[in-house]
Recover the amino acids of this structure.
């Protein structure tokens, strides 16, 4: 349980114990060990076969993970608003059930994608979760 450490006017500074858990993960800060709850790993395979395995933050999207880690081939021109189709990826077959099907809005936007296939998804519409640890996606040869 958090305990107040100091108080100044209406602000109170709280000490969060090292075992604190927020949203299923340890509370942020130096009191939790970075390896205590490893982040889900996502592998992006470029059209030239280059592989990028990076850590995704639960609650962010696969697109945001790619951009944050400078994965080439993901442009995300609309910033994740499902309005550009430049974050198009192919989901490896083994992961399709876990990533789910595109929403009707995503399907409409995929019509503007380049070389769209049955396993196409917009990476901005896929939330990173612990269940997606190990996810493998392929980046198309080019975006729309
Ligand atoms: Fe624009 Fe995904 S970032 S549709």
């Amino acid at each position: 349980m958090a305990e107040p450490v100091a108080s100044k006017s209406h602000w109170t500074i709280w000490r969060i114990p090292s075992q604190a858990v927020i949203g299923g993960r340890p509370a942020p800060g130096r009191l939790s060990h970075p390896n205590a709850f490893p982040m889900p790993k996502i592998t992006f395979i470029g059209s030239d076969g280059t592989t990028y395995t990076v850590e995704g933050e639960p609650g962010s999207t696969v697109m945001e993970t790619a951009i944050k880690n400078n994965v080439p081939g993901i442009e995300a021109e609309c910033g994740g608003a499902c309005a550009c189709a430049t974050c198009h990826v192919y989901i490896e077959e083994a992961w399709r059930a876990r990533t789910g099907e595109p929403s009707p809005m995503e399907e409409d936007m995929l019509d503007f994608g380049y070389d769209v296939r049955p396993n196409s998804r917009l990476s901005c519409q896929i939330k990173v979760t612990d269940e997606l640890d190990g996810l493998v996606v392929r980046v198309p040869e080019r975006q729309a």
Summary: Residues 98 and 124 are 16 Å apart (CA to CA).
